[in-house]
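Hi R.,

Here's the input for the MGD complex you asked about:
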Amino acid sequence: MSEWKTSACILCECNCGIQVQLGGENDREIVRIRGDKDHPASQGYLCQKASGLNYYQNGKDRVTSPLRRREDGSFEEIDWDTAIAEVSQRLLAVRDQHGGDKIFYYGGGGQGNHLPAGYSTGIRRVLGMQYRSNALAQEKTGEFWINGQMFGNHVKGDFEHCEVAIFLGKNPWHSHGVPRARAWLRDFSKDPARKMIVVDPVATETAKFADIHLRVKPGTDAWLLAAMVGMLVQQEKHQVDWLRQHATGLEPVLEAFAHIPVADYCAIAGIPLEQAQQAVDLVSGAASVAMFEDLGVQMNHHSTLVSYLEKLLWVLCGNFGNPGGQYIPASLVNIAGSGLSSRNSPVVGAPIISGLVPCNVIADEILTDHPDRYRAMVVESANPVHSLADTNRFAEALRSLDTVVVIDIAMSETARQADYILPASTQYEKWEATFFNFEFPDNYFHLRKPLFEAEGDTLPEAEIHARLVEAMGAMPEHLCGELLAALEEGGRNAYRERFMQAMAEDPSVADLAPVILYRTLGPSLPEGAAAAAPLWPIALGFAMKEPASLSRAGFEGDAFSQADALFDAILAGHSGIVFSRDDQDSSWSRLGNEGRVRLDLPAMLAELEVLAQPPALPTDEEYPFVLMAGERRDYSANTIFRHAGWRRKDPAGALRICPDDASRLGIAEGGRARITTEVGSALAPVEITERMQPGHVSLPNGFGLDNEDGERSGVAPNELTSLEHRDRFAGTPHHKFVPARIEAVA
Ligand SMILES: Nc1nc2c(c(=O)[nH]1)N[C@H]1C(S)=C(S)[C@@H](COP(=O)(O)OP(=O)(O)OC[C@H]3O[C@@H](n4cnc5c(=O)[nH]c(N)nc54)[C@H](O)[C@@H]3O)O[C@H]1N2
Ligand SMILES: Nc1nc2c(c(=O)[nH]1)N[C@H]1C(S)=C(S)[C@@H](COP(=O)(O)OP(=O)(O)OC[C@H]3O[C@@H](n4cnc5c(=O)[nH]c(N)nc54)[C@H](O)[C@@H]3O)O[C@H]1N2
Ligand code: SF4
Ligand SMILES: [Mo]
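And here is the predicted structure with MGD in place:
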């Protein structure tokens, strides 16, 4: 057997450390996988999904050569020089004819790979691309916006140390999001001093661990949370002294919640008043409360308002900057962002949060004759045809563009709509990393070394982007020569000085920095880690911003030496390293708003008025059910695996429905049902289960991929979802609340 090599699982944001043995023909397969005990966050933990990773590395539909679309829609192989030259020419032509703001960038990273987004700043600068988006703009932007206003930063709950844990529309048993989630859930629930509240219409695996399961009616969380905040305020259970010291805008909030009809709102949400009261008492009586809101509320009615209410609930009880409450993580690269752009999206006029155009408006900004419509798109490391609402309309939008370039490892549903497919090496064939680094008090970064040589004619994104910038004539070759000379003669110090001088002279150098670093500093890095070169200025940025956290993590000296030491440790630390060690003050020093929490958000307080109207419950005769389109389950992982063989159970992705609904509709266990929505219709096998409540059905996330061999397993959820149903603030979709009709199929 071969030696154990280290890497990470790439299936969810936890990116647990793995150790693998390679085997099979030419050692091209991952044959054994175990948890890496040296990984500082996962400490040897893995969930059942990681064992299938060879289905990613050796899955179906791999693209191994650049491809160009022919007139008849089929693809032909071309060589890299041709591909890079033609892609560059076509994008430059769109820029010259229509303006670079008509070229849209989508994606840049999935659950395991965030280096591509870093590299993409080069072509985005050269082409003058202004608009971009990714999956965060169909889940997290509402929460980011609220966080930005209240805290001026991204906040997270400290589940490691909290007394009370709340999961709101979140099922960590399956979806993780906290390290070692299953082990954590088991340990937490055994500790009599700690309590868990789960808000979920479904009796999930996580809900079974809860001390209080608030089994809301789908889509009514805003009423429940408004009632809970109302109880706190009306019963004067909020922490007045703490709030006077650490927050602003308390009075308007107290006023707004003084007359919330608590009992009525609980009734609307389907929660007994006493149970809501128990939950409020737990929250207000606890030394610390940690909260995690996720897709159950973020892809649902009133999602931005819910984010605000959720935060009021814990912050009114003083749960920021305390052990076990919420903290602001140290960040090497802040992928969350929080600001609202001053500019809206060009056609629909949608708000742009964290620099991201809401996913649900992109197709509408293409399928129009508006002069500002997008004309071309670069999609990288994402599968928006499958993952965004209304699959068919998004595919139609892509086909109507002048030029679509997809950078992917596989022939995805999105790649099928491309004019050019540039084949990337997999995450196990190149250096990779993610910026999902949100832990506290220690925070971690893991640069992964390749396990395999690149397959066929594939290239890492770093190389693809460098070649594109070069072909566009925008690589500053003279500067690169000087940087190489400086590095050779004076080492990293001389190199740094030359680089900083160049950036001061020409602002475009900052955006080109990743490809310049890759071409100049890159070749000097150990073990061929050229693609990691952009981490060096990132380390320097962190040293300038957070010298104390860095020095507590063991990196001493002035900013330059701290940064060099951190960068070298990242390069050498194949199981991940601690880059930041915080203390309680760290969160306070990262808090915006002059060090105080801002409580009163006028737009949100005004929005409370919508709760006077009844919720959009499914009363419609045509679509009497609420369909949750995209539940996380044992064997779902976005569209990272294209080979259904990895699923050890439920390969076709059953529609889950409660026994009463099933018998009323005449559907038997093992039978099939037709699901029909405003935009589409699909067939699925049925699982009858008490976990669902009446009127609520669910389909899994990530199913229904079309393999090149003609296989399709399960329902593609976004063939059933619509672009129209979206949040009025953040534009995030209502994927967890799709009006649907269910019928038995003989
Ligand atoms: N196994 C697996 N894990 C994953 C992924 C995967 O594809 N598969 N994807 C990863 C990604 S990208 C993400 S963003 C996370 C998402 O992780 P989660 O948000 O935990 O995943 P979901 O299952 O989509 O939705 C969470 C819960 O919301 C509940 N819910 C539905 N409607 C409502 C409602 O009206 N109110 C409330 N309060 N709850 C409701 C559902 O019952 C479900 O339990 O998972 C990550 N982890
Ligand atoms: N209806 C409904 N829709 C949903 C959801 C839902 O709950 N319901 N969940 C949403 C959520 S939370 C998310 S995060 C999105 C996820 O959706 P997307 O952001 O579109 O991401 P993935 O499905 O992870 O697709 C990743 C793509 O990257 C490719 N890839 C893998 N490794 C590499 C690599 O190293 N380089 C390159 N260039 N490509 C690579 C894969 O082949 C795949 O095509 O889906 C969303 N869509
Ligand atoms: S929790 Fe599971 S899916 Fe997520 S990274 Fe760890 S092993 Fe992979
Ligand atoms: Mo996600």
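One thing worth noting: Residues 110, 113, 116, 135, 138-139, 295, 380-384, 387, 407-410, 412, 424, 426-427, 461, 629-630, 638-640, 701, 717-718, 721, 735 surround MGD (ligand 2) (CB under 6 Å).

Cheers,
M.
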